[in-house]
C-alpha cells in the first residue's frame, strides 16, 4: 500500500479515527534517531511577544515547512519531523516539544496551510497518541517523559492506545477494577481491559487503574503510561462487523510500571483522565479545518463519480448534509479560537456528539445513492480493505455505527452537556461517597 493510499484511507475517506497503518506500527521504535531541539519551557503557557506575533510566527513557519518539504512529494515521516521541529505539531505546546508556545486557536490556521498543501491529518495517523496521550503527558507527566515520548509519537514511530474501558466499566468508567499495587519503585498491575483500539500496534498505553479500593470510585484511581511490550501484557483481537480487528482485549498479569511513568499524583487518576477524555472528544469532534474534507468529502466524490444515480431527492439531502458539515467545521474552528489557552472542557463534547451523528447520516446517504452496489466491498477480512477499496462505502457505513459509542456514547455526552453546560439536574448516582469495594458490580 502506498503512502498516498494510506493517507487517503486514514485522512480523507472518513472524518473519524481509523485503524493506523500497520506499516507505521511495525516499524521499530527509532527514538534514538531523534535529534532534539532544546526545550524552553515545560508549560503550554504562551511565551514571548503578542498573540498576533505568535500567530504570525506560526503561520510563517507552516509556509516555510510546506515550501521546504512539499507534503505531496516528501516521505511522510520526514514531513512530520519537519513539522515537529518547526513547532507545528501542537502550536500551544512549549518550544522543543512540538510547539511554539502559541494560543491553541492558531492550530486551525496552521493546519489549513499544512493540510491544504496535501499534508496528513496527524490525528488519524496516531489517534490515541496525537489527540489524547500528548496533552495528558505534557500536563501531568515529568519533563523527561515529555521529551522521551512526544517526538516519536508525532512522527508515528510509536503508536499509542488507551487502556480505560473494562468489561464492567464503559460509560461508568470510574467503576473500573484493574488493580495497581506499589512494590518498591514499581507498580504491579493486574486486570482486564476491552475495546482497546490499536493495542496490537501500540508501543505505549494510557492506563487508568485502581490503587485504593477503600476510597469512593473516583478517588482511588491512578494514571500511568504502560509499555505495551512489557512482560505480563497480552493482547487478543476482537473482530468487528466490518471484518477488521481494530480493537482488542488486553489482559494484564502482574505487568510492571516504573513509578516515573505515573501521570499525576497517586489517587488523582480521575482528574488526569479528564484531561484525556476532554481532549479525546475535542480531537474526535474537532474535525478538519479544510472545507469539504472528511466524510462529506467522501460523499461528494461519490456524487461526482456516479451521475447516473442522481435524483432530485438525493441532491437535496447532499446539500443539507454539506451545509451541516460546513457549519460543524466552522463551529470547530470557532471553538478552537475561543478556547484560547484554556484546557479542553465539556464544550468539546458538542463536536463529538454532532459529528458522530452527522457522519452516520453521510454514510447512510452514500448507501442510499449506491443501492445494492454498496454491499459489494472487497476488503471484508481481518486486514481491512485493500488499496483499491480505500473508499469502500459499505465498510465506511458499518464503521460509522461505532461513532456514537467510541469516545463516550451519545447518551452520556448528552448527560455531560445537559449537566455542565446547560445546568440541568444531574444524572441519578447511587454510589456517591461509598467506598468502591462496597459498590455492587456486574
Ligand atoms: C470502535 C470503538 C473503539 C473503542 N476504543 C476504545 C479504546 O481504545 N479504549 C477504551 O478504553 N475504550 C474504547 N472503546 C470503548 C468505549 O469507550 C465504550 O464502548 C463506551 O464508553 C461505552 O461503554 P460500554 O460499551 O461499556 O457500554 P455501557 O456503558 O454498558 O452502555 C450501554 C448503553 O447504556 C447507555 N448508558 C450507559 N450509562 C448511561 C447513563 N448514565 N445515561 C444514559 N444512558 C446510559 C449507553 O449510552 C449505551 O447505549 C471503544 C469503543 C468502540 C465502539
Quickly describe the structure.
Helix content is 42%, strand content 12%.
What features would you describe in this structure?
This protein is an alpha+beta fold. The protein folds into three domains: 157 residues, Butyryl-Coa Dehydrogenase, subunit A, domain 1, CATH 1.10.540; 107 residues, Beta Barrel (Butyryl-CoA Dehydrogenase, subunit A, domain 2), CATH 2.40.110.10; 149 residues, Butyryl-CoA Dehydrogenase, subunit A, domain 3, CATH 1.20.140.10. The chain is 42% helix and 12% strand. The chain contains 14 helices and eight strands. The strands form two sheets. A four-stranded mixed β-sheet has the order 1-4-5-8. A four-stranded antiparallel β-sheet has the order 2-3-7-6, with no helix packed on it. A hairpin with an 8-residue loop joins strand 6 and strand 7. Helix 3 runs parallel beside helix 5 and helix 9 packs across helix 12. The chain is globular. The N terminus is likely disordered. The structure holds flavin-adenine dinucleotide. Flavin-adenine dinucleotide binds next to strand 1 and helix 14.
